[in-house]
Amino acid sequence: MKKILLILLCMCCLLGFAGCSKSIAGDYYLSSYTDSEDPTVEKNYNSMMEYGLYIKIHFEEDGTGYLDMLGEKDIFTYDSKEKTLRFEGSSSSEKYEVKGDTIVLSPGTTTMTFTKGSPEDE
User: Fold this and answer.
1) 3-state DSSP call for residue 73?
2) Region for 12 from its dihedrals, namely left if φ exceeds 0, alpha if ψ lies in -120 to 50, beta otherwise
3) What are the CA-CA distances from residue 109 to residues 26, 27, 100, 112 (Å)?
4) What pTM, to 2 d.p., does this model score?
5) What is the rounded distance in angstroms from the CA atom of residue 68 to the CA atom of residue 118?
6) Which domains can be identified in the chain, with CATH numbers?
7) Residue (of 122, 120, 80, 86) closest to 98 by Cα position
8) Could you give the CA distance from residue 120 to residue 116 in angstroms, rounded to a whole number?
9) Which among 18, 55, 92, 115 could bridge 31 via Cys, Cβ 3.0 to 4.6 Å?
10) pLDDT in tens, 68-107
């Protein structure tokens, strides 16, 4: 009897942990953009945001998505376990970090922070 209860308890724990993995699917907007070698990048992007111009990123549940740069969409695939994304036509992948409701990409000297939702939600 104890063995059966232990097995059931383990199964419940495994199912609970499997449900804890948070999906990143959804829409995000670029809320912060910096470049350690070019301080004007942040100022320029902040000016764009004042005029309602945003760079957005969208993740689908199926591991695909796109980066929308003022109407131009760059398609990518992503691996949520490896936390990498690869743009169509590129031979290399970019690592990303998930921090709560934000996704941070840091290619080269730039750091791009995307916040879940829409800038109008702020």
Assistant:
1) strand
2) alpha
3) 26, 24, 23, 10
4) 0.78
5) 13
6) 23-121 (2.40.128.270)
7) 80
8) 11
9) 115
10) 998 999 999 999 999 999 999 999 999 999 999 999 999 9
